[in-house]
Amino acid sequence: MLKSSAKKLVSGGVKISEVYSPFPIHGIDPIIGVKGTRLGIMAFLYGLTGLTLATIGMYYFMVVEWKMNIGGKPNFSYVENVLAFIPISFEFTVLCAAHGMAITYLLLNRTLPGMPAQNPDPRTTDDKFVMEIRLSENHGLTEEKVDELLKDTGFVELDKKIIE
Amino acid sequence: MSHVVSPIREKLVTGGKSYHDVTHDICKQVEGEPTKEWKWAFGISCVVFAYGAYCLFYTWWQGIGVWGLNKTVGWAWDITNFVWWVGIGHAGTLISAVLLLFRQKWRMAINRSAEAMTIFAVFMAGTFPLIHMGRLWVGYWVLPIPNHFGSLWVNFNSPLLWDVFAISTYLSVSLVFWYIGLIPDFATIRDRAKKPVAKRMYSILSFGWSGRAKHWNRFELVSLVLAGLATPLVFSVHSIVSFDFATSVIPGWHTTIFPPYFVAGAVFSGFAMVQTLLLVMRKAMNLEAYIHTKHVEYMNIVIMVTGSIVGTAYITELFISWYSGVEYEAYAFLNRATGPYWWAYWSMMTCNVISPQLMWIRKLRRSLLFTFFISIVVNIGMWFERYVIIVTSIHRDYIPAAWSMHYPSHIDIAVYVGTIGLFFVFFLLFARYFPVLALNEVKTILKGSGQSYKESPDYHKHH
Fold first, then answer.
1. CA-based end-to-end distance of chain A
2. Strand A18-20 to strand A130-132: parallel, antiparallel, or no bridges (unpaired)?
3. Which range is least confidently modeled, A150-164, B152-166, B373-387?
4. What's the confidence (pLDDT) of residue B448?
5. Does the beta-carbon distance from A43 to B153 stay under 8 Å?
6. pLDDT at B395 exceeding the cut of 70
7. Is B455 helix (H, G, I), strand (E, B) or coil?
8. From the list A57, A70, A101, which residue is nearest B157 (CB)?
9. What mean pLDDT is predicted for residues B67-91?
10. Considering only CB atoms, which chain B residues are within 8 Å of A100?
11. CB contact, 8 Å: B10 with chain A?
12. How far apart are CA B366 and CA A156, in angstroms?
């Protein structure tokens, strides 16, 4: 229902600043103009960093600095030992990708331990959906015009605030 | 909705719940007073853990000589317990990551608690390699850090070091995956909390979660990518655990079948533990509408399939030991089945091969009591599997003069039982203070049946 009313409002020329919901609403993002996230690319880059670090590290420890003699097997070349290095390369890649992405995600959302709640109404984490419309972002429209458009949407509550 | 749900499918959430009902059903567990049963269970777990902790301290003080180990059997209960706990720790991530990638929506009722179980189990697992080092205070030597021994590094060719990386990555990534999902649900509890202390605590735990469209957008991608990373991770972890054995030259350990066989065994035992815990939890916390027979049946099918893979692996192992023509291999397996540890071998065979086959019968796999019984049987069987693999393979050394038996000391047993106690301490705390169901995910599957609940008399009663 929120999706269809958002569509109506947007086609009426209203810019919706924000939508708060208790769970993800699939398909709302293009309607209110939220771009897809690029966190996936970041995860890939973090993974690549992890892989590089693991490779450099193991090359240095096992081939350059201390050639460990294991039953006289070749210990002077990374390539000939690479099979033994795959498990840790993989684990370290995953470690860096997962943690890097998770930390970036928390920082981007500005959600960190002890931060104050950012939702406008405590019920938005239960079963209520909030659509935030700012007149300051809708210069072409008056308050009355927005009210009129809203009337068709079947909202439950309307809360007007003057923000300095 | 982008997908079609067949009308003959059983509903995932029964009882015509509204969004608010879901919130209320889960949050009331956190907001109410703990029940008498909870207090008893928690008290008993604490006592069991305390005795285990005492025996653990005794081990550190005296050295691992207080265990039943000897010169021939150098690995026994410690590594058995380690592999058993890691195995149990595989179901949670499998449920939340693999089933997320496959878009299996039934996971949503169980993923939160299964993953909590995973994290606690892997934590228990991680303690055993540390304890069995004997000198815990030098445990940090497993890390590749610059040291004062000259340019000496840990051995990156060793599967034991791979294990260090695998287990620590698995534990920390599972923890992050779990916590990212918990943040919005903590926010729900935060916004309902009335008591100032609770409000403050959940406010800290929920990181100020907003529920903005952009944040949900990121949330979904992060969950998806973490699931994508965790899926190969979960398979790699138990493969690497199996390398601890498979890359050695001990007959009975030196087999290439180990990685897939261990992974299947891990999923098998993990799901059994999930069943054990959830069947109790749904009853104690009145979650019958969310975790019902269909969920139990799905999990039983997983148990049946993985149990069959494990059974096939046992038989393949036996066959290959004969077919290889290596007499040491052949002896190792003959000795397992007919030697002094025959009882352990046949307990394992009965618990792990025969019992899951009973799940072919629909009536049995939909019976909650029977499922509970089988889940305990499988837990026991999988412990014996590791004991059989470890102890029977090494107790007959190459020189008959070195042949030996392993008898656990009471310290061995107490340390093991102590970790079970600690596991339950953690799990009970989780059940008491955390949202045991993924609220934000369960609410998304209500929508599919949203129309039907609006038409039901329940809806009109509430509104």
1. 31
2. antiparallel
3. A150-164
4. 53
5. no
6. yes
7. helix
8. A70
9. 89
10. none
11. no
12. 43
| Average pLDDT per block of 10 residues along chain A, 164 residues long | 70 72 76 77 89 89 80 79 88 91 85 75 74 70 70 68 60
Whether residue A33 contacts residue A7, with contact meaning beta carbons closer than 8 Å, is answered with no
CB B358 within 8 A of CB B374: yes
Positive/negative CA dihedral, B277, B279, B283, B285 = positive
Residues of B in contact with A101 (CB under 8 A): 222, 225-226
Counting one residue from A and one from B, how many pairs have CB atoms under 8 Å apart? 203
Where along chain B do its domains lie? Answer: 19-134+161-452
CA angle (B58, B64, B67) in 5-degree steps: 85
Least trusted range by pLDDT, from B213-222, B252-261, B406-415: B213-222
Which pLDDT score, from 0 to 100, does residue B45 have? 93
In this structure, of A152-161, B34-43, B353-362, the range with the lowest mean pLDDT score is A152-161
Question: Which pLDDT value is given to residue B1?
Answer: 41
**Which letter, b or e, does each residue of A80-112 get, where b requires 16 or more Cβ atoms within 10 Å of its Cβ?**
ebeebbebbbbbbbbbbbbbbbbebbbebbebe
pLDDT at B383 over 50: yes
**Chain A contact present for B6, CB below 8 A:** no
pTM of the model: 0.87
Alpha carbon of A162: minimum distance to chain B alpha carbons (Å): 21
Rounded Cα–Cα distance for residues B403 and B335 (Å): 12
| Interchain proximity A29–B213, CB inside 8 Å | yes
A88: nearest CB among B162, B188, B440: B162
**Which residue in A34, A43, A115 is closest to B225 by CB distance?**
A43
Give A106's contacts in chain B (Cβ within 8 Å): 207
Query: Are B225 and A40 in contact (CB < 8 Å)?
Result: yes
Pick from B113, B396, B213, B225: nearest CA to A96: B225
Report how far apart, in Å, the C-alpha atoms of B154 and of each of B163, B299, B373 are: 13, 41, 44
